Amino acid sequence: MASANGLVIAPGKEPLFSFGLISDVQYADILDGRSFYGVPRYYRHSIIVLQRAVERWNDHQKLKFAINLGDIVDGHCPKEQSLNTVKEVVGVFEKFRGPVYHLIGNHCLYNLPRSKLLPLLKIQSPDGHAYYDFSPVPDFRFVVLDGYDISAIGWPHDYPSTLEALKFLQEKNPNQDKNSPVGLVGLERRFLMFNGGIGKQQMEWLDGILQEATKLKQKVVVCCHLPLDPGASSKEALLWNYDEVMDVIHRYNCVKVCLGGHDHKGGHSVDSHGIHHRVLEAALECPPGTDAFGHVDVYDDRISLIGADRMESTDIYFNPQADL
Ligand SMILES: Nc1ccn([C@@H]2O[C@H](COP(=O)(O)O)[C@@H](O)[C@H]2O)c(=O)n1
Ligand SMILES: O=P(O)(O)OC[C@H](O)CO
Q1: I need a labelling partner for 136 at 20 to 30 A (CA). Which of 32, 79, 148, 183 fits?
Q2: Mean pLDDT of residues grouped by 10 in the chain (324 residues)?
Q3: What is the position in ligand 1's atom list of the atom closest to the CA of 34?
Q4: Which ligand is nearest the CA of 26, by number?
């Protein structure tokens, strides 16, 4: 039996649970603009996309939670409006009848320091970090990474993470404008200021979580604003140390899917260990009247992303070899 979006759905099989997804709303009450590459960005329409997402998620009635993959407000938002704009977008998310798990992105950090942002997003994590995990049912665990742990944006100027990031960019990117990839070759093109990395403490935390999930026989979904696989993303959008993070993930068999945002066109890949990487299409780049959000049905052997409009529906079968 085929559904309207072409996915084949086994009749009668109920999902274990379902959840909503959206990324890169990047709302600002400003005129429409364009990305560096000229892709139109609809700053005022994006909050309408979010409103439609929340309505649709509520209509569904069986969504256990929703995940926002980051960048709720755009960097072009006038700074005196940042606080109210973040509150306005959070207010729309709060109309969803269930918990919303937020990730932070570079644009959130252009607007507000972590000390103001994290309480608004109800992110509770050690020392101003934004990584955490949750387990909506005993057999599944979601790991939310803070891709701007080591970053030149969002931390106080004299903070160790800022200094480490600036030193890293100085070594890796010879351009005066550290957001410019000019002259960087291949995967080096990710060494840009609008990206960031995972620090030692978070890496150890991730390792511990995956160890625990393995013992509990849980299947894990990893979420990070910055994509973790070159096959699913432009090189310029990748997490600085995506390779180190994937080395940790690949030591275990529990991670089935990695979800990302940031690279607005979206993407999907399956890596060398059979892990799926799905980068979500941005709400910001939806021309008026169009949408990009979705919900995910989770089964014991797969997850199905049912996308609205510009968000591609994706059926992700877990690698059965991984459980042998
Ligand atoms: N190839 C590129 C991409 C980006 N930049 C710089 O980054 C800024 C942010 O890019 P957006 O597309 O998100 O607006 C942009 O303003 C450029 O300064 C670049 O130099 N080269
Ligand atoms: O975070 P943005 O909106 O500046 O965009 C990042 C780019 O899409 C990365 O290629």
Answers
A1: 148
A2: 49 90 98 98 98 98 98 98 98 98 98 97 94 98 98 96 98 98 98 98 98 98 99 98 98 98 98 97 98 98 98 93 65
A3: 14
A4: 2
| CB neighbours of residue 170 within 10 Å | 10
Which residues make Cβ contacts (< 8 Å) with residue 208, sequence separation at least 6?
none
Residues 280, 284, 290, 293, CA torsion sign: positive
Report CA(139)–ligand 2 centroid distance (Å).
34
The set of protein residues with a Cβ atom below 6 angstroms from ligand 2 is: 106-107, 194, 234, 236-237, 262-264
> For residue 36, how far is its CA from the centre of ligand 1 (angstroms)?
5
What is the C-alpha to C-alpha distance for residues 162 and 150, in angstroms, rounded to an integer?
A: 7
Q: What is the pLDDT of residues 27-43, one digit of tens each?
A: 999 999 999 999 999 99
Report the CATH number at residue 45.
3.60.21.10
Tally the domains of the chain.
1
Domain boundaries, position 186? 18-323
Q: Is residue 302 part of a domain?
A: yes
Which one of 36, 178, 226 would you pick to mutate in the ligand 1 pocket, going by the greatest count of ligand atoms within 8 A of its CB? Answer: 36
* 7 domain residue, yes or no: no
- Pick the residue whose CA is nearest to atom 2 on ligand 2: 262
- Kindly identify the ligand whose nearest atom is closest to the C-alpha of 177: 1
For residue 4, tell me if it sits in a domain: no
Which residues, in sequence order, are CB contacts of 293 under 8 Å at separation 6+? 20, 21, 22, 49, 50, 52, 53, 56, 283, 307, 308, 311
In a domain, 8, yes or no: no
pLDDT at 321: 67
Q: What is the pLDDT of residue 320?
A: 75
Where on the phi/psi map is residue 139: left (φ > 0), alpha (ψ -120 to 50), or beta?
alpha
- In this structure, the residues whose C-beta lies within 6 A of any atom of ligand 1 are 35-36, 179-181, 194, 236
pLDDT computed for residue 155 by the predictor: 96
| Distance from residue 287's CA to the centre of ligand 2 (Å) | 18
d(CA 78, CA 112): 12
Cα–Cα distance for residue pair 77/79, rounded to 1 Å = 6
